[in-house]
Amino acid sequence: MKLVPYLVFPGTCRDAMTYYSRIFNGELNVMTTFGESPMEVPPEVENRIFNSELDAGDFQLKASDDMPGYETKIGTNISLFVVFSDKESKLVAFEKLSEGGKILFPLDDNFGMLKDKYDVQWMFVNET
């Protein structure tokens, strides 16, 4: 299992991740826009960032811009992104953490998102 911080920005993800890549001497391995994603989005958000990944040695950071209809509030714009090596562990952790919390995106084959009973936001995926 691996834990990666996941930041969400109100339209400034590209600038922020480019800045962080310079600061941490890292490489932006992923920078996908909403327009390139499988989601249908309004034209005004097509150039916003759907997913980005910064790697700098052992340091990894993931980020995106907020999704249409989910306005981000700076200061509460972080999720804990957990990468599981097996689907069963992911399923068990998702079910337990959702008790008393709120499921934001139901767990499908490779993604789920929730807020636990302490309002901590979690994202779950399998290793690829």
Overall mean pLDDT stands at 90
What characterizes the major β-sheet? 8 strands, mixed
What is the CATH architecture term of the largest domain?
2-Layer Sandwich
The proportion of residues in beta strands is 35-45%
The end-to-end distance, rounded to whole angstroms, is 12 Å
Radius of gyration: 15 Å
Strand and helix order: EHEEEEHEEE
Total beta strands: 8
* Estimated structural class: alpha+beta
Count the helices. How many? 2
Q: Indicate the CATH topology of the largest domain.
A: Signal recognition particle alu RNA binding heterodimer, srp9/1
Unreliable sequence segments: none
Task: State the strand order across the main sheet.
Answer: 2-3-4-1-5-8-7-6
Structural domain tally: 2
Percentage of residues in helical conformation: 10-25%
CATH class descriptor name of the largest domain: Alpha Beta
Describe how the helices and strands are arranged.
Layout lengths: L1 E8 L3 H11 L3 E7 L15 E8 L2 E7 L12 E7 L2 H12 L3 E4 L6 E4 L5 E6 L2
Parallel strand pairs: 1-4, 5-8
Antiparallel strand pairs: 1-5, 2-3, 3-4, 6-7, 7-8
Structure notes:
Helices cover 18% and strands 40% of the residues. It contains 2 helices and 8 strands. It has an 8-stranded mixed beta sheet with strand order 2-3-4-1-5-8-7-6, covered by helices on one side. The longest helix is centred in the C-terminal third of the chain and has 12 residues, at 87-98. The two termini are 12 Å apart. 19% of the residues are buried.
